[in-house]
Amino acid sequence: MSDTPVRTGLPRQRMLAVLAVTLATATVSFDGGIANVALPTIARELGVPGSSAVAIISTYQIVLVVTLLPLAALAERIGHRRMLRIGVVLFIAGGLFCTFARTLPVLIALRACQSLGSAAVMCVGAALIRSLYPPEWLGRGLALNTLIATASLSLAPTVGGLMLAVQPWYWLFAIGVPTTLAALLLSGIVPESARRDTPFDVRGALYCMASFGLVFAAIESAVHGAAPLLTALLIGLGVPVTVRFVQRELRASMPILPLDLLGRPLIALTVGGAMLTFIASTSLLVTLPFRLHEQFGFSTAATGAILAAWSLTMMFFAPSAGILSDRIPAPVLGAFGMIVATVGALLLALLPEDANGFDISWRIAVCAAGYAFYVSPAFRMVVNAAPPARVASAGSLMTTARMSGQTLGATASATMLALGIGQGAAPAAIAALLFFIAGVLGIIRFSPGTRD
Predict the structure, then answer these.
(1) Can you tell me the distance from the alpha carbon of 137 to that of 326, in angstroms, rounded to the nearest whole number?
(2) Over the stretch 373-406, which tens digit does the pLDDT of each residue have?
(3) Based on the domain organization, do 173 and 226 belong to the same domain?
(4) Which of 53, 263, 273, 364 has the fewest other C-beta atoms within 10 Å?
C-alpha cells in the first residue's frame, strides 16, 4: 500500500497517524532516560553493588545500537507499520513484566526486551514521517520528531525522581505503557509501506550485531579498566568479524549496513558530520557538570539549572531549523549551525575565572542553537536523499550515528576525566574543533561534485 491515502485524505486522518508515531517516539525516548535516576534505589533494594546496577543502562544502550540497522532492513521487507506495531508490543510487554522483576538478571533481560522494542520503533520513525508529511513539510515534521524526542529524554530524570518519591522503583518501567498502548490503537491509521520481495539476510544481521557489539564492548572494557586480556580478546574477535561483515555488505545488493547509501557523497558527508556533532555535544554535556562543580563551585541544583539552557534552546530552535530546511538548503543551515556551535564552544572554553551562572548559560545556549541548526536539517537531507525503498535504512543510519556518537562522546568524557583534563577547558576546546570539522564537511557537501 502506498502513502497516497494519507497525503490526500482528510487532515484528521493524517493528524491521527502523526499522533500515533509521535506517541511511540516520545515514549521510547523518555524510557531511554528514566532508569538513570533510579539506579541507586534499585541497587539498594536488590542488594547489588551500584556498579552492577549500571548494567541496566549499558545493556539497554547496547541492544539499541546493535539492532537498529538489522531491524530497519527487516522493516523494508515486512512493512514499516508492522515493525512499528511489533516494537510497541515488545515495549509494552517488557514494561509490564519489569514491574514483577525482583532480581537484577531478570530486570536486565526485560530491559533488553524493552530496548528491542524501542529500536523497532526508532528504526522506522523517519520513514513513517516521510510518508505522512507532504514533501514541503518534511523538514518541520522531522524537526517536530527531534524536538519531542529531545524534550522527552530531558524530562525523564525529573519525572523519574518525582515518581520515586511516591511509587516503588519498578513502576518507572511501566510509565510508558498507557501512551504506547494509545499509539498501538491509533497505528491502524498509519499507511503501510511497499515491501521488498528479497529474503532477509539473517547471517548479515548476525554479523552486524556482532560487529557493533564487540566494538562497543571493547571500548567500554578499555575505558572502565577491565582486565587487559579481556579487552585484547574483544578487539581480537571484533576486528575480523567487522572486516568480514563489511566484505559481505559490499557484495550485497541491499545491504543491512547501508553502504549503498554511504556510497553517495552527500549522505556520507552528512552522516560523518552528524556523528562528530553527537560526539562533541555529548562529551561537552557530560564533562560540564564536573567543571561547574570543581572549577566554579556551583551546587548540584545550580548546575542542573545552568545545563537546562541546552534543552530549552533546543526546544526553541529545533522546530525553527526544521521549518527553514524546507526553504533553505540543509548544507547552508548546517554550515551556519556549526559556525555558531564552534563559537559557543570556544566561548565556553575561554570562560573567565569569575563567570556566574548567566555567563555560562548564554554560552551554552549559543552552542545548543548551532547544534539545532545542524541536526534537524541533516536528518531531513539524509531521509530525503534516500530512495523510497531505503528510507528506513537511511533513518536508522542517522539514529545509529547518533547513538554511536553519544556512546563515543561518553567514552571520550570518561577518558578526559581519568586523565585529569575533563574538569577544565579542554572538553569545550575539543568540542569546538569537532564542530568546526563538521561545518567544513557541511560546506564540502554543498559543492556540485557531492550532489546526487
Answers:
(1) 7
(2) 888 788 778 877 777 777 777 777 888 888 788 7
(3) no
(4) 263
Q: Do 236 and 256 form a contact (C-beta atoms < 8 A)?
A: no
C-alpha cell at 244: 568480514
Regarding whether 215 and 177 lie in a shared domain, the answer is no
365/440 same-domain check: yes
Q: Residue 110 and residue 99: Cα distance in Å, rounded?
A: 10
Give the chain's radius of gyration (CA, Å).
21
CA distance linking residue 410 with residue 234, whole number of Å? 20
- Residue 241: what residue type? V
| Spatial separation of the C-alpha atoms in residues 66 and 30, rounded to whole Å | 20
The mean pLDDT of the chain is 82
- Look up residue 3 and give its DSSP letter: S
Please tell me whether residues 433 and 335 are part of one structural domain.
yes
Dihedrals phi, psi of 103, to nearest 5 degrees: -130, 150
CATH code: domain of residue 118: 1.20.1250.20
Mind listing the pLDDT tens digit for each residue in 128-151? 887 787 777 776 777 777 777 767
**109 and 88 assigned to the same domain:** yes
At residue 263, the 3 state secondary structure works out as coil
- For residues 62-71, give the mean pLDDT: 88
CA gap 120, 80 in Å, rounded: 9
